[in-house]
Amino acid sequence: MMPYLLLLVFVPTLAYLGRRSGSKTIRRTSLWVVGSVMVLVAGLRDYRVGTDTGNYLRQFQRSESFVSVTEGRNEVGYHFLSWLARSISESYSVLLLMIAAIVVVCYLPTIVKLSRRYETALFLFIALGAYTFFFNGARQGIAAAICFAAMPFLLQRRAWPYFATVALAMLFHRSALVALPLYFLAAPRISPLRLALLAVATAMTIIFLRVFVGFAANLFDDKYAVYAEATEGGGTVMLAFLLGQGAALLWLQRTIRQDQREVYCRLLNIYLVGLVIAVAAVVSSVNPSGLLRLHIYFSSMAILLWPMVFILISERVLRGIASVGFLAVAVAFFVMTTTTFSDLVPYQINSEILRW
Question: Which sequence ranges are marked TM in the entry (predicted)?
Fold first, then answer.
């Protein structure tokens, strides 16, 4: 767990020092270092770090020709990436480094562009699990990262660039389809009627979950049928955190300045839409590794929302108390999820590198 905690301290600290330096060169250098470190930590890990990493490596070893990755396969973007990595080297670290580079390049510039105090957002990028998500679900992690990179287009109301970016994400994981309607659902305001409609949508999703998943299985791939299979359930803690965070962000929207209210509400509406799927997944006791994992397309909005809240707390003492309290909750959540889910602990360096 220690490598993750060191990363959680190092990344926002260096980003903060770079931003506060007043030098554009130092600022850019600090961001390059931060991005490089995050790529290296993810890319140089052992194949045993991340439940599904071994599956991706077996696919990597079978990626011997361009035809083998394009013929009769869905999500050709990832398979092409796997073939490209195999063409460069037979070491799986090349594949993991390329995956990490794509994800970090999607998140980091977007965070810097949309967040004034981006060090807080980078802390949340790691603490809330968006960074470690792709350690396990590489394809979906790439797709979610590309969709996150489309947020500036959504906020600027540039429809075609947004839809084109989401279409690119779908080449890596078809679940990115859920991001398409967000362009229309990200309303510039939040009203009691909208909240009531979300409650109705949640109830309808629970009732007709098997119908929706069956449609997805017929449209894309039969593997999505397992999303509606009843299991022992799971994800209760994750859902509780997502609901608590959503309630806090909803209550705090009244403190947002008028000139930032539209952006805040659009991002918050995306987050709240994601709660519909998360609640339906947990209440229906379906496979938590399927439907619940869709939250990554929505919950990542919190990375941008919390810095907007903290920057508007003018009272230094109050801001300090709020920051310490939030820090404690975020770190506790990070430690619990990292040590519990996806076989992320213990972190190990790729044994092939150690032999070099």
Answer: 91-109, 121-154, 160-183, 195-213, 233-252, 264-283, 295-313, 320-341
